[in-house]
Each structure stands twice: as structure tokens, then as C-alpha cells.
Design brief:
mainly alpha, two-stranded antiparallel ribbon, about 170 residues
């Protein structure tokens, strides 16, 4: 097992990425990028992990982009959706096959945990002033609850499917 696959290293790394992104926004792009690169370099399957991160983060980022276009999120940066959010998605997706691997195959549980965890994370970011909500907090909470009830199990499924499929291929 690579060091970045260790539960506590992976979990702590994501917490660091989350707080850097939330507190410093795009100013944290360099340290967050370095943390993501370290994750990949210290992983036993860096290319599979990179492919997993790109695919799953694109899915999550696309949903946030659609939510922003529809006025659910309002970012104060000049970009429609800020760079730090894309990096945060990469950081989160780095947990899917590692510290969040417990949820693999437990899709009902992941729907429940994802709906609560995903939606409250965005509300926490709004409370910290990183994003404005285009609707009332309860409306946004319900929207995110429904989205994350499907998104988190899908991300878990995709990440583990990619890992299993490509890890078994001969080099």
C-alpha cells in the first residue's frame, strides 16, 4: 500500500486541501496542486488513480458548474466556477478509493451519508463566505441532498470500477 492510500494520511490530506481551498481560494492553488501530486506520486497505482481522479472530478465539477449556471451557487471570483473548486474536486476524488473505500458496494449507505455530508459541506462553505447561495439555505440544502444521494454512490461506483478494471490489465 502506498503512503497516500493509508486511511489517516488520505483523510488528513483531504482535510488540508478542503481548508486551504475554502480559506484561501485560488491563492491556495499551488499548495493544493502539490498535495494532489504527492498523493499520486505516493500511490501504488498512480496512473489508474490519475484517471480515476480526472473522470470523477469532471463529473462532480460539471454538476457544480450546472448548479452555478442555474443560480444555486454564486461565486465572487471572476470565473464562472473558480479554479479552487476544481482542485477541491480532485482532492475529494482522491479519497474515493482510499479513505472512503469503505462505501464501495454499500450504495444505500453511501446515498444517505453522501446526501447529508455533501449538502452540509456546501452550506459550511457558504457560512464561511466562500460561496453565496442563490436560494434560501433550506432550498439549497434540499437540492444538494437529492443530488448527493445519487452523486456520491455514483462516484464510489465509478472510482472502484475503474480501479478494478484497469488494475487487472497486464502492463
Amino acid at each position: 500500500m502506498g503512503i497516500s492510500q493509508n486511511f489517516w494520511v488520505n483523510f488528513t490530506g483531504f482535510q488540508l486541501i478542503w481548508w486551504l481551498s475554502i480559506l484561501y481560494g485560488n491563492s491556495a492553488a499551488l499548495p493544493v496542486t502539490i498535495l494532489i501530486l504527492l498523493h499520486l506520486l505516493l500511490h501504488t497505482q498512480p496512473l489508474i488513480e490519475l484517471f480515476t481522479l480526472i473522470l470523477t472530478a469532471l463529473l462532480g465539477f460539471s454538476i457544480d458548474f450546472l448548479l452555478t449556471l442555474n443560480g444555486v451557487f454564486i461565486f465572487t471570483e471572476s470565473e464562472a466556477v473558480p479554479l479552487w473548486l476544481g482542485l477541491l474536486w480532485l482532492g475529494f476524488c482522491a479519497t474515493l478509493r482510499n479513505s472512503l473505500s469503505f462505501f464501495s458496494g454499500r450504495y444505500l449507505l453511501s446515498a444517505f451519508v453522501g446526501s447529508i455530508g455533501g449538502s452540509t459541506t456546501y452550506l459550511a462553505a457558504a457560512t464561511l463566505g466562500v460561496v453565496e447561495l442563490g436560494f434560501s439555505p433550506i432550498t439549497v440544502f434540499i437540492i444538494l441532498l437529492l443530488i448527493w444521494a445519487g452523486l456520491f454512490p455514483l462516484l464510489i461506483f465509478l472510482s472502484h470500477r475503474i480501479g478494478v478494471r484497469y488494475a487487472l490489465r497486464p502492463n
